Amino acid sequence: MTKADIENLSSKIEAFKKKHDQSENTPTDSSRSGASKAFQFFIEFVSAVFVSIAIGLFLDNILSTAPVFLVILTIFGCAAGVLNVYRFAKTLERGNI
Predict the structure, then answer these.
(1) Does some domain include residue 38?
(2) Does residue 62 form part of some domain?
(3) pLDDT per residue over 68-82, tens digit each?
(4) Highest mean pLDDT among 13-17, 24-28, 84-88, 93-97
(5) Which domain holds residue 63?
(6) Which residue in 86, 82, 75 sits closest to 52, CA to CA?
(7) What pLDDT sits at residue 26?
(8) 16, 37 in Cβ contact below 8 A?
(9) Using CA atoms, how far apart are residues 55 and 65, in angstroms rounded to an integer?
(10) Residue 25 falls within a domain, yes or no?
(11) Which of 5, 24, 72, 91 suits a disulfide with 96, CB 3.0-4.6 Å?
(12) What is the pLDDT of residue 21?
């Protein structure tokens, strides 16, 4: 290795160290506020319910079956929302987030 190669490698190492030090200053998931975690709980549940309602309405319109699919898929959407919130709560309990 020549002296120029060593200096090039040294400058790359310094750039990497600066970049790594800056990334340590960015907030992580563990430092999120309680409000943001509560909002994620809300979004996890509501999105599952809204998607299931939309699919139920779509199927009822296509197949001309009054509220059959809407009711069935709303129940499944609520169950899926509760399951999503439960999984998220478990990750909070373990300290992963």
Answers:
(1) yes
(2) yes
(3) 999 999 999 999 999
(4) 84-88
(5) 33-94
(6) 75
(7) 52
(8) no
(9) 13
(10) no
(11) 91
(12) 73
Q: Which residue has the higher pLDDT, 20 or 90?
A: 90
CA distances from 1 to 13, 16, 72 (A): 16, 21, 71
Tell me whether residue 64 is in a domain.
Answer: yes
Q: What are phi and psi of 32, to 5 degrees?
A: -70, 150
For the chain, the domain total comes to: 1
Q: Beta-carbon neighbour count of residue 45 at 10 Å?
A: 19
Contact by Cβ (8 Å): 46, 17? no
Alpha helices per DSSP H over the chain: 3-24, 34-63, 68-94
Measured distance CA(44)–CA(78) in Å, rounded? 11
Token pair belonging to 93: 């309990």
Q: 């790359």: which residue's tokens? A: 12
Cα end-to-end span (Å), the chain: 45
pLDDT band at 25, cuts 50/70/90? low
